């Protein structure tokens, strides 16, 4: 199983469970949902979500995603997974709370370490 990760607000995830699909804001503005590999998740969190509260990490089975998944180069030269379309929630096999420390920075949750 190939696992990709996505950071979102707990409220957005709760709404997605009700709807049966998840739509990130980036789907409307950029045409895809941003995701990360386990080695990228802290870097992404500290760059884009510093000091934010109420976040969760969605653990996604890439093989179960019905929309197209593409690995594309980001501005830093790494390949990041992007989901082109709505995320079917049955592809999410785990959801983990993701809180920053007192300094506003994130550390790798044990659940992500266990993916290795």
TrEMBL record:
<protein>
    <recommendedName>
        <fullName>DUF952 domain-containing protein</fullName>
    </recommendedName>
</protein>
<dbReference type="Pfam" id="PF06108">
    <property type="entry name" value="DUF952"/>
</dbReference>
<dbReference type="InterPro" id="IPR009297">
    <property type="entry name" value="DUF952"/>
</dbReference>
